[in-house]
Specification:
Blueprint lengths: L24 H16 L8 H15 L6 E4 L2 H11 L5 E5 L4 H8 L5 E5 L4 H4 L5 E5 L11 H11 L2 E5 L16 E5 L11 E5 L43 H15 L3 H18 L9 E5 L14 E3 L2 E5 L6 H18 L1
Helix pairs in contact: 1-7, 2-7, 3-4, 8-9
Amino acid sequence: MLAIASAFTRVPGYLDTASYGLPSRAAARAVRDAVRAWQAGTLDPAAFDPAVERMRAAFGTLVGAAADDVTLAGSTSQVVGMVAASLPDGARVAIAEGDFASVCFPFLADPRLRVDVVPLDGIVAAAATADLVAVSAVQSSDGRVANLDALATAARVSGAKTLVDASHAAGWMELSARDFDVVVASAYKWLAAPRGIALAAVRPDAAWVRPVNAGWYGADRPWDSLYGPRMQLSATARRLDTSPPWQLVEAGAISLELLASQAVAEIGAHSVGLANAFRERIGMPRGASPIVAVEGVDADALAGAGIRASSRGGRARFAFHVANDERDVDLVVHAVRAKARAAA
């Protein structure tokens, strides 16, 4: 069992981290404390700035970037939209067929851009002709893993820019964010933070990414930058920040620091190991991610057996993470086999 597992209240049969991750007890307490302070009128917005810096540092540790590389946002699509708006007219963008909407829609919605949709296994080759390649490190629908090493190499050769959505990878998959222009993750899934926080590592030489949503929090001294027209944005990735959700950031910092206290490789070995134990016991080949998509299984029908999963693309999607253990594997295998017998 992972050392950090004891920080969570185990919810037997919760296999839906791909929808949202469960908080640690400390993170949940931090949200409650912030709400109480808000209700009492004692919330001090400036007092949350250190928590934002802690999130930058912890996210950098988790994805292989420096704290100064990290920008704060509210969602993945916000960051992707900023990247799309930073591209020149007529730029060619390659996206993977069936990728998550937040990765695709900001480009598809921009009439200035030419968007090529390719199979996931063709995304590396697309770097040869694209101005930018955008892809999820791990597919939300079924857990397929992109060949990021090959993509980084192909992009270096061709000069293509790169955006990687690590929402289903950060925290359990070892990443090297500086191999890509932008690596973004919504923190409410595998990073176990509250919804409303996204973080992105922006390579220092990716000055082409413009602060499309420029605001007061993009300055090095934000509380001295509340009013215009004088604007002095940070020279670091902070220039791209949007202002923080005050009631959430302490919980976010606690969540990311907890994960960063355990080696990413250990979290990945635990989570993928449980997923593969499940795959093997129901006759599926081993995989490379903690997401398992099973044909012919209704996720909603498993609720009575104490299984929380989700339905994606006509399949039941199960996701194993730090708070899961072998008991969850036993529980879901029994439930899936029981439904299969009932349907036979």
